[in-house]
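Render this sequence as a predicted structure.
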Amino acid sequence: MNLDLILKSKAVNGWGLFGLIAGPMCLVIIAESIAADLSTGAGVSQMIGFSVRIAVPFIYLVVAASSVHILFPSLFSRWWLRNRPYIGFCFAVAMAWQATFIFIMSNVYRDYYYQDVYLLRDEIEGSVGYIFLVAMVVTSFRQVRAHMNQVQWKLVHTFGIYVLWAYPFSVYWWTLNYYENPTLLDYVYYWAGFLAVALRIAAWWKVRSQFRDGPATHASFKFLGIVLIVSGLVASTNGLLWQNALTEFLTTPTWSAELVLWLPFWPFEPFFPLFFIALGTMALTFRKRDADSQPQVAAS
């Protein structure tokens, strides 16, 4: 069968795709919740984690959609990008299940929640994520978007998508680089999250390379860019070797140590490798404008 015809089918586009994914996903979560014994705090806690693990792939797919289309334009990438909002809605459904289990935990099993689960920093990170998630879902509908200008809409969705990506990515980074006995799924989700943003950086490099004016990048900037990118890639594979030293250094000031308690993700250890890669990409594509291209000021 022709791939183009398949990807244009209503069943795998728009709300059809949403129903195709969200329906079975809800059935799986319901089945798991029955098996988990929701009469105990531990069972509800298990479902909080399970619903998140269901949700994570969808936010990664949303993050990577536009980048894949820029880097590897094809019928499939066009379909992926076209259906990005509906993939995002699937993520929202899974997170709605998580919110439901958190509500049950915090209201029915309060002692268990505050003694074994609650942490202010996690609460703040999760709350910020939910605020952005609700805002992104609401503003995805034309009736609401019509009341926003392009800048406002882009700010909500750009900041939102990175916040929603950052939470699971940082969780799996810490699981690999701080806690003991990570599972195979922890590795998969960490590297999938890393790849999702690395693809965005690569797409940014491609766009900057094609449309930047001026002379070629100086050799020194190319060298710096390569060093930064390689450093970021190496750092992404061995956080156990540098995490503790970096955390101690960054939290030495009292004000920084206090920020750890309530500022989401501070001091941003999981994101340093990607930050280096982004800086390296910027250096590789740096252009100094020709002096002749600058507007000339008439002599007075």
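Summary. Residues 6 and 12 are 8 Å apart (CA to CA). The chain has a mean pLDDT of 88.
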